[in-house]
Structure formats: C-alpha cells, structure tokens
Amino acid sequence: MLSTGSERIDQQLEGGLFSQELIEVSGPPGTGKTQLALQMTGLILAEDHTACVAYLDISRNFSLSRINEIVHSRGHTGMDVNKLAARIKYSRCSDLYSFMDFLEAAKSQLKQWGNCRLLVIDSITSIFSSLIGVSYIKGRAMMYSAFRTLQDLAREHNLVVLIVNSAVGNHSNLERGSLNTKPALGGAWSNLPYVQIFLTRGRQNEKCRINCQILKSLRSDPGSIVQVELNEAGLC
C-alpha cells in the first residue's frame, strides 16, 4: 500500500492506494492532480532509498523543482535532489502509438529497474480522446488493450498505477464537486479504474482548498468528500 501523502485522503481511502491496482485522479485544471502525482513520487523516493518511480509525462507538467520543494517541506531536508532524480524513470509520449510503445517497453524495463513502487501517467486524456474519431468498436478495443497491459504491469510488478485524467462539463461552478462536471473520456473508460478520485476547488474564499471526492471504490464509501489544503508541501 502507498500513502498519497495526505493523511485525510489516506483515511478516506481506508489506508491509501493498494498495490496491483489502477487508480484514476481527475478534475478540472488547477485542482492538484499533478501535485498529487508529484508528491507521491517524491515521498516514495525520500522514504525508501531503494525504490524507483516510473513517470510518463504526457502533459509536460512534470517538475523536479516542485518535487524537491514538497520533499523538503515534509522534513526531508537532507535529500539530494540529483540522487532522487536518478530514481525517477522519466519518459514522454505524444500520441496513442508512442503510448503503446511505452507500455510495450515497460514490460522489460520494469524488471531491470527492480523496486518500482509507482507508475504515473499524466495525463491519459489527450491520448485516449484521440479515439473519439475512431469507430466505436475499434476505439474501445484499443482502450481496453492499453488497460489490460497496465493491469498486467501493476500485478506482475506489485505497483500502483496512478492515472491522471481531466474533466468535462461546466467548469464555472466547481464548488463541492459540481454535478455538471465529471471525468473525461466517458463511460467506457470510467468502468476500468479500480478507484476514481475527483478533485475540485473549494469556495471562492478558500482558493487553496481542494475537495477530494471518491467516485468509485471497492473499499471506501463512494461519494465521500474530504477537504485538503494545497500549499508548498502539496496536498495536505
């Protein structure tokens, strides 16, 4: 099991994120999705010096300086950022085909890397949204194929797969998880992750507050909401 780095979110998830599972975190822009991925990456590496993290940066939001800020804000002041960076297996891709190539390569690379605790995909939205123009059957088949590969990687290597997704709908009213806003990619995708976490901003006078809602979980209460703070230490 991995901690999210937020005690409140961990409690909401009955302890944290379970290995061998695919977890989706989604929400509108500026709600802390990438922050959650970065803080989990940094804290895993800071607390386990044998661990590594695989990070697929599709959205180009990865920031080593932000990881360093989070890690130091959490009390790991002696951590050498260069040594930490050496254990981040960083990759990029720009389309569905390079994404599938990444998954194929990961099958052998994860064995070479050893103690990989987390695979981050930030974000899946642009990759799979390209399937909207593809025939329904072919598009769904390609999505399911990618999911099965991710599922196999999670199980074989005993890691957590954290998938960042965006949101669609009315972004003008984002307080307390507006019913007009939902994860992108539609119902075909929403059936696949084991856990779905949805982030929205708090009220206008609480700009650093983020509402974390569980949309789907086998262990936690779907619909439960906790509020966390987004600051220099990440989502706390």
TrEMBL record:
<dbReference type="GO" id="GO:0016787">
    <property type="term" value="F:hydrolase activity"/>
</dbReference>
<dbReference type="InterPro" id="IPR003593">
    <property type="entry name" value="AAA+_ATPase"/>
</dbReference>
<dbReference type="GO" id="GO:0033063">
    <property type="term" value="C:Rad51B-Rad51C-Rad51D-XRCC2 complex"/>
</dbReference>
<dbReference type="InterPro" id="IPR020588">
    <property type="entry name" value="RecA_ATP-bd"/>
</dbReference>
<dbReference type="GO" id="GO:0005657">
    <property type="term" value="C:replication fork"/>
</dbReference>
<dbReference type="InterPro" id="IPR051988">
    <property type="entry name" value="HRR_RAD51_Paralog"/>
</dbReference>
<dbReference type="GO" id="GO:0000724">
    <property type="term" value="P:double-strand break repair via homologous recombination"/>
</dbReference>
<feature type="domain" description="RecA family profile 1">
    <location>
        <begin position="1"/>
        <end position="172"/>
    </location>
</feature>
<dbReference type="Pfam" id="PF08423">
    <property type="entry name" value="Rad51"/>
</dbReference>
<dbReference type="GO" id="GO:0005524">
    <property type="term" value="F:ATP binding"/>
</dbReference>
<keyword id="KW-0539">Nucleus</keyword>
<protein>
    <submittedName>
        <fullName>p-loop containing nucleoside triphosphate hydrolase protein</fullName>
    </submittedName>
</protein>
<dbReference type="GO" id="GO:0007131">
    <property type="term" value="P:reciprocal meiotic recombination"/>
</dbReference>
<dbReference type="GO" id="GO:0140664">
    <property type="term" value="F:ATP-dependent DNA damage sensor activity"/>
</dbReference>
<dbReference type="InterPro" id="IPR027417">
    <property type="entry name" value="P-loop_NTPase"/>
</dbReference>
<dbReference type="GO" id="GO:0000723">
    <property type="term" value="P:telomere maintenance"/>
</dbReference>
<dbReference type="GO" id="GO:0005815">
    <property type="term" value="C:microtubule organizing center"/>
</dbReference>
<dbReference type="GO" id="GO:0042148">
    <property type="term" value="P:DNA strand invasion"/>
</dbReference>
<dbReference type="InterPro" id="IPR013632">
    <property type="entry name" value="Rad51_C"/>
</dbReference>
<dbReference type="GO" id="GO:0000400">
    <property type="term" value="F:four-way junction DNA binding"/>
</dbReference>
<dbReference type="GO" id="GO:0003697">
    <property type="term" value="F:single-stranded DNA binding"/>
</dbReference>
<keyword id="KW-0378">Hydrolase</keyword>
